[in-house]
Design a protein that fits this description.
This is Serine protease snake. It comes from Culex pipiens. Belongs to the peptidase S1 family. CLIP subfamily. By secondary structure, the protein is mostly beta strands. The chain has 6 helices and 24 strands. Strand 7 and strand 8 form a beta hairpin.
């Protein structure tokens, strides 16, 4: 048993060099925040579970990535379970029990069942998600370039084997699963360490749409497993806040990419297809009733959401891309005393500068 053996000899194992920040003859100073595997909290607030209502067989190996208040990205292979389409998603995944019905499933038109190519799909939800401290969307990384930094891959694994930082012998097991974040390097095609099983899956080789990541260090076997459909992500600061940018959706790989590479579906090569399914001006839905208040003048206070009592400011529509996108999506929008002036919450009002091109570019503004 690899896990049991690792526990019995844990006091003999050396700490990773990235964690050791100081050393004397008698002791080491450790910075556990630099660990290659760590507990995940906010890193999971856009990961959703996929659910099949009234169906006896569950798929534990499928998750999705929330990217807006009504849209989830996932692997195409995870849209069905033995031919039965998914019916709901759990938002907040393990942190909440609230589920949302799926109103539409859009699979990449070139996906072939069982293939690792074009393995991507979109779920549209039947009701809009209300964001909170534990439910936030991920932003889509639209640039073809990947920053020269490590990326985070999300997984699950045993609490006990991943989190001891001690020099005494282990004396108790704690086998419960925990959410994990694994730090990966982005590997080139020539540096992508694939098992024979992974190579068989990639019968046409690595394509531009694939992202190969991993870490040369080894973990105890079976101590961490990736979550298919969860994002390979990059935490960045925008508008003085951290946002997680989804570069790809995890497909397959063992031990969370330690000792061998994991393969993911990059989002950037699929941006053109995603735009046709995500951007409001491509959608064809029945128009919602719009509200016009002739007493609201530009620059004056207004009510953005009567139900939740959210206040706003009457603003030119070009300065409020989030709400204008809602209008183009045929959602309800409150107009002021002009067809070009809408009620916009202050946090959505765009600052002076280049105008965002579309909702894929305005994510940090829309959800801050």
């Amino acid at each position: 048993n690899p896990v049991g053996c690792a526990f019995l000899r844990s006091y003999l194992r050396n700490q990773d060099t990235e964690v050791v920040v100081g050393e004397t003859n008698d002791a080491q100073t450790l910075d556990v925040s630099r660990a290659l595997v760590s507990y995940a909290s906010n890193e999971f607030n856009h990961v959703v579970g996929i659910y099949w209502q009234n169906y006896p067989y569950r798929r534990e190996n499928c998750t999705g990535t929330l990217i807006s208040d009504d849209t989830v990205l996932l692997l195409a292979e995870c849209t069905s379970n033995f031919g039965v389409a998914a019916t709901h998603v759990y938002i907040g995944w393990l942190l909440t029990t609230e589920n949302y019905p799926i109103s539409e499933t859009i699979i990449h038109p070139e996906y072939v069942e069982g293939s690792p190519y074009n393995n991507i799909a979109v779920l549209k939800l039947g009701k809009r998600v209300k964001f909170s401290t534990i439910v936030r969307p991920a932003c889509i990384w639209t640039s073809p370039e990947i920053p020269p930094s490590q990326v985070d891959v999300l997984g699950r694994g045993r609490q006990d084997i991943n989190f001891f930082v001690r020099d005494e012998q282990f004396d108790s097991f704690w086998p419960m699963d925990a959410n994990l974040t694994a730090r990966h390097n982005v590997n080139s095609v020539s540096n992508c360490s694939l098992t024979s099983e992974s190579r068989r899956k990639l019968n046409r080789g690595l394509a531009e749409e694939h992202l190969c990541t991993g870490n040369p260090n080894f973990l105890v076997p079976e101590s961490c497993r990736i979550l298919p459909g969860a994002p390979v992500q990059l935490p960045l600061v925008r508008n003085d806040r951290y946002f997680h940018y989804a570069l790809a959706l995890s497909q397959f790989g063992s031990n969370c990419g330690f000792g061998e590479s994991t393969i993911s579906t990059r989002l950037t090569p699929h941006i053109n297809w995603l735009q046709t399914t995500l951007l409001p001006n491509f959608r064809d839905e029945a128009a919602a009733v719009q509200y016009v208040n002739p007493d609201w003048a530009e620059g004056e206070p207004c009510t953005y959401d009567f139900e939740d009592e959210i206040e706003g400011v009457c603003t030119q529509y070009l300065k409020c891309p989030k709400v204008w996108n809602d209008f183009k999506a045929k959602r309800r929008v409150n107009f002021c005393n002009s067809a070009s002036v809408i009620c916009c919450p202050k946090r959505y009002i765009a600052q002076e500068g280049p105008k965002p091109r579309n909702v894929l570019d305005t994510c940090p503004t829309d959800f801050s």
